[in-house]
Amino acid sequence: MQRVLMAETEKAQAELAFLKAQVNPHFLFNILNNIYTLALTQDLNTASSIMKLSNMMRYLTDDAGHDEVSLAQEIACLTDYIDLQKLRLTQKTIIEYEIKGNINNKKIAPLILMAFVENVFKYGVSNHKNSKLVIRVIAEQRLINLYCENTIHPDKKHEKRTGIGLKNTKKRLQYIYPNRHLLAVENTQKVFKINLSIHLN
Amino acid sequence: MEKLKCVAIDDEPLALALIKTHIEATEGLQLLQVFEDAIAAIEYLSKYPVDLLFLDVNMPDITGLELYNSLAVKPMVIFTTAYKNFAFEGFELNAIDYLLKPIDYMRFKKAARKAIEFQQHKQQKEQDLNEHLFVYSEYKLIKIEFKDILYLESLEDYVKIHLSNGKMIMTLATLKKIIDKLPADKFKRIHRSYVVAVKQVQSVANRKAKLSNEVLLPISDSYTSFIEEWKNT
Question: Measured between CB atoms, which of B14, B21, B82 is closest to A29?
């Protein structure tokens, strides 16, 4: 039994290593295409967009390789990612992104919050119907809380929710924060919600 | 050739703005519409004829491949994509081209050129397959089979079309205008006023072509090359 659990966690860690090494090429090249357009039209957001992408890439390829990062770093990555995603979205998608509390002097395992936020964009966006995406991080003394919410688009043809991404993140949470986290997933037919709390030492 | 009527579909506003700029900068392309909403695009395409689609592969509601497959009438397509994966490979055969993002103008122009040449080739082929032409005569639109034509004769503002059944149709047109509607390899000019169906020429003597109905037509100095062409058919 113990051996099975070990094998599972090793697999989860290996998958994380793989995820870290591989930045989603769709995201990267679409963002580059958007920045290219900004540059052609001499848009004032060109330089700041390059900086955001650069910061994000540095975090993913370097800092995220450690067991722990500062919460502020992980949140900076979330913010850059969300800002860059906004370049890609139409007015049909509304984003509510909020950070509450003091995010300084706290540590967290990398890319856990990112995994949930990526999912929000992966499943919550439609160009045909209106969507609302909510991402909220609350930092308390010994607790980090992440709340995500996205509209569900049942007509979405190609991206059926496979649950693999969520499953991997659950495994990592089990491994890194055993008995120290709480994850609630709510899937109504219209909205997908997650609520994650991590207790810090 | 008429400009290719284009529609561009991409879920991202900036990506669409880029394609729009590229299309408008390219001679031979005419932009009809752009769509961020692929579902709305399908609706549009079912109503209006389009020559060329610029179609993003990865979109949130439906993929570009699914969209293209769903179309009853399939225009030429140039796929645009941020990242080329395996699922995409087989599809290249049916596409004029695919463009990888970021899309630079020189590469775009190359793809557009391919589409324009493909269209020209298609139209030429259609013309070659045509076996008749239409002319107006005495307030009627008349269909004439190429195989029934013996020769054309110009007469001031009119062209007389002599047919193998002995009939003659007179239409208000220049000889040049009628020639343009005929397959160039089957009809040759032999004189300022005459064009013959090469197959109908039975003999040539003393700069005169004798047709199957015994009619003799003059071959003028400027068109003596006809004799060589006729010999080689």
Answer: B82
pLDDT at B156: 87
Please, which pLDDT band fits residue A22 given cuts at 50, 70 and 90?
A: low
Domain that holds residue A185: 2-199
Shared domain check, B137 and B116: no
Q: Does A25 touch chain B (CB under 8 A)?
A: yes
With a CB-CB cutoff of 8 Å, which residues 33-92 of chain B face chain A? 36-40, 58-63, 66, 82-83
Q: Which tens digits make up the pLDDT trace of B108-162?
A: 999 999 999 999 998 888 777 778 889 999 889 999 999 999 999 999 899 999 9
Structure tokens at B192: 């300022």
Residues of B in contact with A90 (CB under 8 A): 11, 13, 36
Q: Lowest mean pLDDT: which of A8-17, A46-55, A74-83, A106-115? A: A8-17
Asked if ipTM goes beyond 0.90, one says no
SS3 A61: helix
How far does A28 lie from chain B, in Å, by closest CA? 8
Residue A21 forms contact with B (CB below 8 Å): no
* Secondary structure (3-state) at B104: coil
Using CA coordinates, name the residue in chain A closest to B20: A37
**Which of B99, B129, B159 is where one domain is finished?**
B129
Report the CATH number at residue A119. 3.30.565.10
Measured CA to CA, the distance from residue A88 to residue B11 in angstroms comes to 8
Task: Mark whether B226 and B195 lie in a shared domain.
Answer: yes
Backbone angles phi, psi at A137, to 5 degrees: -115, 130
Q: For the whole model, what pTM was predicted?
A: 0.74
Distance CA B158, CA A94 (A): 69
Binary contact (B58, A26; C-beta < 8 A): yes
